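WARN retry 2 of 3 for item q-0093 after timeout on previous attempt; input resubmitted unchanged.
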Amino acid sequence: MDISIRLEEENDYQNVEYLTREAFWNIYKPGCVEHLLVHKIRKVPAFVKKLSFVACHDKKIVGNIIYSKGKIVNDEHNKYEVLCMGPIGVLPSYQRQGIGSSLMHYSIDKARQLGYKAVILFGDQNYYGRFGFLNAIEYRIKTSAGENFEAFMALELYDGALHGISGRFYEDEVFKIDENELEIFEKGFPYKEKRVTSTQL
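OK item q-0093 returned
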């Protein structure tokens, strides 16, 4: 499939939010929050506009990826800026065709060119391991709550980028979603049934 990747533009925003909603609906919970996350991330200082990309097929947006800035704070309260990846979404009818992988490879390469140290994410170890992500414990990085688990992963963007850096990872406050805010935001979209599915945690 012929896919092109370009920077997201403001007139793409609504299409990308619809796409994200379709990609995540009923996957991790009845309904989803990811479309609101994308909407909110663009409005905060942590948003990295130069790493907000869309994948297109015949001029139709079929996938997107977004990054924000996070930080690792060590025991001495020193702060180190890193990237937080996500959400990344692909329209259901275009999934399993390499579009997500293309967005990952393309955006990681751009992040490296922009001089960022590392990318942190929460996701499937088998999938993100393909791109070089390791359990964050390998870099002595824990969540903000001091925890570690398989889905908490980190990628150095160049050799030794995280050398001497350890501590707790803090994503931007924008990731804290208020259910009332989500309910109001959801009213701007066509009705979709919320269901419990086997993929939900």
